[in-house]
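> call design_seq(struct)
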Protein backbone atom coordinates (compact mmCIF):
# COMPACT_ATOMS: atom_id res chain seq x y z
CA UNK A 1 0.00 0.00 0.00
CA UNK A 2 1.26 3.48 -0.87
CA UNK A 3 1.88 6.00 1.88
CA UNK A 4 0.88 9.63 1.30
CA UNK A 5 3.37 10.99 3.83
CA UNK A 6 6.08 9.81 6.23
CA UNK A 7 3.67 9.40 9.14
CA UNK A 8 1.86 6.63 7.22
CA UNK A 9 4.94 4.44 6.87
CA UNK A 10 4.46 1.41 9.11
CA UNK A 11 7.20 -0.32 11.11
CA UNK A 12 8.18 -3.69 9.61
CA UNK A 13 6.67 -3.02 6.18
CA UNK A 14 7.86 -2.09 2.71
CA UNK A 15 5.77 0.69 1.17
CA UNK A 16 5.86 3.16 -1.69
CA UNK A 17 5.90 6.90 -1.09
CA UNK A 18 6.50 9.91 -3.33
CA UNK A 19 9.31 12.07 -1.93
CA UNK A 20 11.69 14.83 -2.85
CA UNK A 21 15.36 13.88 -2.47
CA UNK A 22 17.10 17.08 -1.35
CA UNK A 23 20.60 15.98 -0.48
CA UNK A 24 22.91 12.95 -0.49
CA UNK A 25 25.90 12.25 1.75
CA UNK A 26 28.40 9.51 1.08
CA UNK A 27 29.01 7.53 4.27
CA UNK A 28 31.09 4.56 5.42
CA UNK A 29 29.92 2.04 7.99
CA UNK A 30 32.19 0.80 10.81
CA UNK A 31 32.87 -2.38 8.85
CA UNK A 32 34.03 -0.32 5.88
CA UNK A 33 30.89 -0.75 3.78
CA UNK A 34 29.96 2.38 1.81
CA UNK A 35 26.39 3.66 1.86
CA UNK A 36 24.43 6.85 1.23
CA UNK A 37 22.27 8.97 3.51
CA UNK A 38 19.49 10.67 1.56
CA UNK A 39 17.65 13.67 2.97
CA UNK A 40 14.06 13.41 1.79
CA UNK A 41 10.91 15.49 2.18
CA UNK A 42 7.26 14.42 1.87
CA UNK A 43 4.43 16.59 0.54
CA UNK A 44 3.49 17.68 4.06
CA UNK A 45 6.89 19.26 4.67
CA UNK A 46 8.20 16.46 6.90
CA UNK A 47 11.87 15.55 6.50
CA UNK A 48 13.72 12.32 7.18
CA UNK A 49 16.91 10.46 6.32
CA UNK A 50 16.83 7.30 4.23
CA UNK A 51 19.79 4.91 4.09
CA UNK A 52 20.78 3.49 0.73
CA UNK A 53 22.97 0.39 0.92
CA UNK A 54 22.51 -0.51 -2.75
CA UNK A 55 23.40 1.08 -6.06
CA UNK A 56 24.46 4.73 -5.64
CA UNK A 57 21.76 7.31 -6.31
CA UNK A 58 22.74 9.23 -9.45
CA UNK A 59 19.64 11.33 -10.19
CA UNK A 60 20.20 15.08 -10.47
CA UNK A 61 19.10 16.85 -7.29
CA UNK A 62 16.55 17.88 -6.25
CA UNK A 63 14.80 14.76 -7.53
CA UNK A 64 11.20 13.64 -7.08
CA UNK A 65 10.94 9.85 -6.95
CA UNK A 66 8.51 7.10 -6.04
CA UNK A 67 10.49 5.40 -3.29
CA UNK A 68 10.08 1.84 -2.08
CA UNK A 69 11.18 2.02 1.53
CA UNK A 70 11.51 -0.43 4.40
CA UNK A 71 10.63 1.08 7.77
CA UNK A 72 12.30 -0.39 10.83
CA UNK A 73 12.58 0.62 14.46
CA UNK A 74 15.88 1.92 15.78
CA UNK A 75 16.25 3.27 19.32
CA UNK A 76 12.45 3.62 19.59
CA UNK A 77 12.23 5.75 16.42
CA UNK A 78 11.50 4.90 12.77
CA UNK A 79 14.50 4.14 10.55
CA UNK A 80 14.16 4.10 6.76
CA UNK A 81 16.01 1.96 4.23
CA UNK A 82 15.72 2.43 0.47
CA UNK A 83 14.86 -0.78 -1.36
CA UNK A 84 14.27 0.67 -4.85
CA UNK A 85 12.82 3.69 -6.61
CA UNK A 86 11.17 4.71 -9.86
CA UNK A 87 10.06 7.87 -11.59
CA UNK A 88 7.28 9.91 -9.99
CA UNK A 89 4.62 12.00 -11.69
CA UNK A 90 4.60 14.50 -8.82
CA UNK A 91 6.03 18.02 -9.26
CA UNK A 92 8.92 19.32 -7.18
CA UNK A 93 6.91 22.34 -6.07
CA UNK A 94 4.43 20.07 -4.26
CA UNK A 95 7.12 19.12 -1.74
CA UNK A 96 8.52 22.55 -0.94
CA UNK A 97 7.02 25.09 1.48
CA UNK A 98 4.30 27.03 -0.31
CA UNK A 99 4.58 30.73 -1.10
CA UNK A 100 2.43 33.08 0.97
CA UNK A 101 2.35 35.84 -1.63
CA UNK A 102 1.32 36.34 -5.23
CA UNK A 103 4.69 36.40 -6.96
CA UNK A 104 3.70 38.56 -9.94
CA UNK A 105 1.86 41.17 -7.86
CA UNK A 106 4.66 41.40 -5.29
CA UNK A 107 7.35 41.72 -7.97
CA UNK A 108 5.35 44.51 -9.65
CA UNK A 109 4.90 46.31 -6.32
CA UNK A 110 8.64 46.08 -5.64
CA UNK A 111 9.74 47.29 -9.07
CA UNK A 112 7.28 50.18 -8.97
CA UNK A 113 9.04 51.55 -5.87
CA UNK A 114 12.49 51.03 -7.40
CA UNK A 115 11.45 53.05 -10.47
CA UNK A 116 10.91 56.12 -8.27
CA UNK A 117 14.44 56.36 -6.85
CA UNK A 118 17.25 58.42 -8.40
CA UNK A 119 18.81 57.09 -11.62
CA UNK A 120 22.19 55.77 -10.40
CA UNK A 121 20.63 53.76 -7.59
CA UNK A 122 17.71 52.65 -9.74
CA UNK A 123 20.08 51.30 -12.41
CA UNK A 124 22.11 49.31 -9.89
CA UNK A 125 19.09 47.92 -8.04
CA UNK A 126 17.13 46.97 -11.14
CA UNK A 127 20.23 45.64 -12.93
CA UNK A 128 21.24 43.31 -10.10
CA UNK A 129 17.68 42.11 -9.55
CA UNK A 130 17.12 41.36 -13.24
CA UNK A 131 20.43 39.50 -13.51
CA UNK A 132 19.35 37.23 -10.62
CA UNK A 133 15.60 37.37 -11.24
CA UNK A 134 14.79 33.67 -11.56
CA UNK A 135 16.42 32.63 -8.29
CA UNK A 136 15.38 35.85 -6.54
CA UNK A 137 11.71 35.24 -7.31
CA UNK A 138 11.61 31.55 -6.42
CA UNK A 139 14.07 30.67 -3.65
CA UNK A 140 13.52 30.86 0.12
CA UNK A 141 15.37 33.39 2.24
CA UNK A 142 16.64 30.73 4.64
CA UNK A 143 16.66 26.99 5.21
CA UNK A 144 14.89 26.88 8.59
CA UNK A 145 14.32 30.43 9.86
CA UNK A 146 12.23 33.32 8.50
CA UNK A 147 10.75 33.05 5.00
CA UNK A 148 11.87 29.45 4.51
CA UNK A 149 9.39 28.98 1.66
CA UNK A 150 8.90 29.53 -2.05
CA UNK A 151 9.28 33.23 -2.98
CA UNK A 152 10.80 33.86 0.44
CA UNK A 153 13.53 36.23 -0.78
CA UNK A 154 11.02 38.25 -2.77
CA UNK A 155 8.51 38.39 0.08
CA UNK A 156 11.05 39.57 2.65
CA UNK A 157 12.57 42.07 0.22
CA UNK A 158 9.22 43.64 -0.68
CA UNK A 159 8.42 44.15 3.01
CA UNK A 160 11.87 45.53 3.77
CA UNK A 161 11.77 47.99 0.85
CA UNK A 162 8.43 49.46 1.90
CA UNK A 163 9.53 49.80 5.51
CA UNK A 164 12.88 51.32 4.54
CA UNK A 165 11.44 53.80 2.03
CA UNK A 166 8.73 55.20 4.29
CA UNK A 167 10.80 55.03 7.49
CA UNK A 168 13.63 56.96 5.85
CA UNK A 169 11.16 59.54 4.57
CA UNK A 170 9.65 59.92 8.03
CA UNK A 171 13.07 60.20 9.70
CA UNK A 172 14.43 62.66 7.11
CA UNK A 173 17.01 60.18 5.80
CA UNK A 174 17.90 59.39 2.19
CA UNK A 175 14.85 57.35 1.19
CA UNK A 176 16.24 56.52 -2.27
CA UNK A 177 19.42 55.06 -0.80
CA UNK A 178 17.44 53.17 1.87
CA UNK A 179 15.06 51.68 -0.71
CA UNK A 180 17.87 50.68 -3.07
CA UNK A 181 19.78 49.00 -0.25
CA UNK A 182 16.65 47.24 0.96
CA UNK A 183 15.94 45.90 -2.53
CA UNK A 184 19.38 44.23 -2.58
CA UNK A 185 19.72 43.41 1.12
CA UNK A 186 18.73 39.77 0.63
CA UNK A 187 20.06 39.21 -2.90
CA UNK A 188 22.91 37.20 -1.37
CA UNK A 189 20.43 34.48 -0.49
CA UNK A 190 20.46 33.53 -4.18
CA UNK A 191 24.02 32.32 -3.46
CA UNK A 192 23.34 30.97 0.02
CA UNK A 193 20.33 28.77 -0.89
CA UNK A 194 20.07 26.03 -3.51
CA UNK A 195 17.16 24.67 -5.54
CA UNK A 196 16.55 21.97 -2.90
CA UNK A 197 15.92 24.81 -0.39
CA UNK A 198 19.06 23.86 1.54
CA UNK A 199 21.92 26.15 2.57
CA UNK A 200 25.00 26.18 0.34
CA UNK A 201 28.62 26.46 1.57
CA UNK A 202 28.42 30.20 0.77
CA UNK A 203 25.93 30.56 3.62
CA UNK A 204 28.70 29.67 6.06
CA UNK A 205 31.75 30.96 4.18
CA UNK A 206 30.35 34.35 3.16
CA UNK A 207 27.08 34.92 4.98
CA UNK A 208 24.19 36.97 3.67
CA UNK A 209 25.89 40.36 3.89
CA UNK A 210 29.06 39.53 1.96
CA UNK A 211 27.10 37.43 -0.52
CA UNK A 212 24.83 40.40 -1.25
CA UNK A 213 27.84 42.70 -1.58
CA UNK A 214 29.55 40.29 -3.99
CA UNK A 215 26.46 40.18 -6.21
CA UNK A 216 26.24 43.97 -6.35
CA UNK A 217 29.99 44.47 -6.85
CA UNK A 218 30.05 41.90 -9.66
CA UNK A 219 27.24 43.64 -11.56
CA UNK A 220 28.58 47.15 -10.95
CA UNK A 221 32.08 46.15 -12.11
CA UNK A 222 30.74 44.78 -15.38
CA UNK A 223 28.64 47.90 -15.98
CA UNK A 224 31.05 50.64 -14.92
CA UNK A 225 29.14 51.74 -11.80
CA UNK A 226 31.78 51.28 -9.09
CA UNK A 227 33.05 54.88 -8.95
CA UNK A 228 29.85 56.62 -7.84
CA UNK A 229 29.35 57.78 -4.26
CA UNK A 230 25.96 56.09 -4.19
CA UNK A 231 27.56 52.73 -5.04
CA UNK A 232 29.97 52.96 -2.11
CA UNK A 233 27.21 53.96 0.32
CA UNK A 234 25.03 51.14 -0.98
CA UNK A 235 27.81 48.60 -0.45
CA UNK A 236 28.43 49.89 3.07
CA UNK A 237 24.80 49.27 4.00
CA UNK A 238 24.89 45.73 2.61
CA UNK A 239 27.86 44.68 4.76
CA UNK A 240 26.96 46.73 7.84
CA UNK A 241 24.49 44.41 9.47
CA UNK A 242 24.34 42.00 12.38
CA UNK A 243 27.86 40.59 12.82
CA UNK A 244 29.04 42.89 10.01
CA UNK A 245 31.14 46.05 10.08
CA UNK A 246 30.05 49.01 12.21
CA UNK A 247 27.44 51.33 10.70
CA UNK A 248 28.78 54.65 9.46
CA UNK A 249 25.63 56.27 8.02
CA UNK A 250 22.08 56.55 9.40
CA UNK A 251 20.58 54.52 6.54
CA UNK A 252 22.81 51.56 7.45
CA UNK A 253 21.57 51.72 11.03
CA UNK A 254 17.99 51.85 9.75
CA UNK A 255 18.40 48.78 7.52
CA UNK A 256 20.17 46.83 10.24
CA UNK A 257 17.20 47.23 12.59
CA UNK A 258 14.50 46.81 9.94
CA UNK A 259 16.15 43.57 8.84
CA UNK A 260 15.84 42.26 12.40
CA UNK A 261 12.17 43.29 12.48
CA UNK A 262 11.28 41.74 9.12
CA UNK A 263 13.03 38.41 9.68
CA UNK A 264 12.26 38.19 13.39
CA UNK A 265 8.56 38.88 12.97
CA UNK A 266 8.20 36.02 10.48
CA UNK A 267 10.06 33.54 12.68
CA UNK A 268 8.06 34.50 15.75
CA UNK A 269 4.71 34.42 13.97
CA UNK A 270 5.46 31.00 12.51
CA UNK A 271 5.88 29.60 16.02
CA UNK A 272 2.81 31.40 17.37
CA UNK A 273 0.69 29.97 14.54
CA UNK A 274 1.17 26.53 16.10
CA UNK A 275 0.53 27.66 19.67
CA UNK A 276 -2.72 27.45 21.58
CA UNK A 277 -4.31 30.89 22.18
CA UNK A 278 -3.50 32.21 25.63
CA UNK A 279 -0.31 30.19 26.02
CA UNK A 280 3.32 31.25 26.16
CA UNK A 281 5.68 29.93 23.49
CA UNK A 282 9.46 30.00 23.59
CA UNK A 283 10.85 31.08 20.23
CA UNK A 284 14.49 30.07 19.72
CA UNK A 285 16.70 33.14 19.49
CA UNK A 286 13.94 35.57 20.47
CA UNK A 287 12.64 34.59 23.90
CA UNK A 288 9.12 33.95 25.14
CA UNK A 289 6.01 35.17 23.34
CA UNK A 290 2.34 35.20 24.20
CA UNK A 291 -0.13 33.69 21.73
CA UNK A 292 -3.06 36.12 21.55
CA UNK A 293 -6.57 34.77 21.81
Amino acid sequence: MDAKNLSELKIGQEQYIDVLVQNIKKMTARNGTPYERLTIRDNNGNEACVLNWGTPFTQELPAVIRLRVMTEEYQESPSYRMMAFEESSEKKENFLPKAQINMRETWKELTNIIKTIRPDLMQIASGVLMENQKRFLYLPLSEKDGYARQCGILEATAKLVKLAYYSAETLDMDKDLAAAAASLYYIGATLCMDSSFLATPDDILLGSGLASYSKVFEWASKNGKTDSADFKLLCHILVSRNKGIATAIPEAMLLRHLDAVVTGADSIQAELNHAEPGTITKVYGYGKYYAKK
